[in-house]
What we know:
Elements: H1 7-28, H2 34-55, H3 65-88, H4 91-98, H5 101-112, H6 119-138, H7 144-166, H8 173-193, H9 203-227, H10 230-233, H11 239-252, H12 258-276
Helix pairs in contact: 1-9, 1-11, 2-3, 2-8, 2-9, 3-4, 3-7, 3-8, 4-11, 5-7, 6-12
Membrane topology: Multi-pass membrane protein
Subcellular location: Membrane
Protein name: DMT family transporter
Amino acid sequence: MRNMLSPGVRYMLLASFVFSIMNVCVKHISHIPAVEIVLFRAGISLAMSYWSLKRQAIPIWGTNTKVLLLRGTFGTLALVLTIWTYHNMPLATAVMLHYLFPVFTAILVSVFLGEKLYKPQWFFFALCLAGIFMIKGFDTRVTVTGMGVAILGAFFTACAYTCVRKLAGTDHPLVIIFYFPFIAFPITGILSYFQWVQPLGWDWLFLLLIGVLTQIAQVYMTKAYQAEKASKVASVNYVGIIYALGFGYLFFNELFNWKVYIGMGLLLVGVLLNVSFKKPKEKVQKEVVR
């Protein structure tokens, strides 16, 4: 089986699996505020990223400082909101809604970077919208507030990836990765002071795992995009939804009615069609952070 899969696909499958385990850890400590979890994750990532940059003698401050700072800010907002949704709605639903970010990214790069949107893409967006309405309409565990926070988190994720695309060719991937914890750590540190919940017992292990697993997954994801064309490995990332469905049932006894599954299917099809749709000779930006 290993020989049947290309290196890029194997790396992306590993990255998606590791991210999924990290999501389970996040949901297991839902009594810890989202900003506090981001604080621990950012602290670990900051130390590991700084060590990697120094080991490879890469200047840590980069070239396009303004966009790097925006990337870190958007990433911080996105992660806090996304973790909140993991705490307050079924895991698979939260993960599914997070994967709306490519749709928002396509719109943002069209508006701010001048990349053209084609008519079929608007149909793909409509499929996503129909899926969202079905998920909200037929799952009573998903509130209007929860749906709004999840969509806003996906939007800020798209803002972060738009910055990453803007940084293509100007800054090293490790520098881009570094700026997220560099911004997130002090911001979430201040916010955590006002709503601190003392981690106890196994909480410390889960917090450590969240930071370490995130860094490992980012490494595998970067290797995937270095080994293969982005168009080949991007869709593999969405196997994370299958992991979320399985882990949600296994660890949290999460089940859905058939109408919600149809809504998830519409959302997934819309996103995958948009990800796979490429204009002729379009150059795809590598995804290096999450």
